Known about the structure:
Elements: E1 2-14, H1 20-25, E2 27-38, H2 40-45, H3 54-65, H4 72-86, E3 90-100, E4 110-116
Antiparallel strand pairs: 1-2, 2-3, 3-4
Amino acid sequence: xxxxxxxxxxxxxxxxxxxxxxxxxxxxxxxxxxxxxxxxxxxxxxxxxxxxxxxxxxxxxxxxxxxxxxxxxxxxxxxxxxxxxxxxxxxxxxxxxxxxxxxxxxxxxxxxxxxxx
Length: 117
C-alpha cells in the first residue's frame, strides 16, 4: 500500500544566496517535503521499521540546509537526492525550499523552488 508522508513548514536559518551579504548574514528558509512511499506494512504492524521515520527525514533536511549554497535549486536537489538515497521505500518525492523576504528591493514574501523526482 502506498501512502503520502508530508513534513510541512520546517523552518531554518541558513546562509544560501548569490549575494555575498546573503552568505554572510543569512536568512530564514522554509522547507516542505512530500514523499510517496510503500509503507502499507506499517499500517498493520505499527512498527517504525516498516515506514519512514519522520524524525530521520527532518535530520536529513537539517543537515543539507546547513551546507551553504548559492542557489535554492542546489539546496532542493541535495535534499531530494539525500532523501532518496537514505530511504529506499520512497517512490516519488517533492522538495520545496522557500527563502523568506528575498533581497529583491521589493515586498516579496518568499522565493520558492520545488523539485520533484
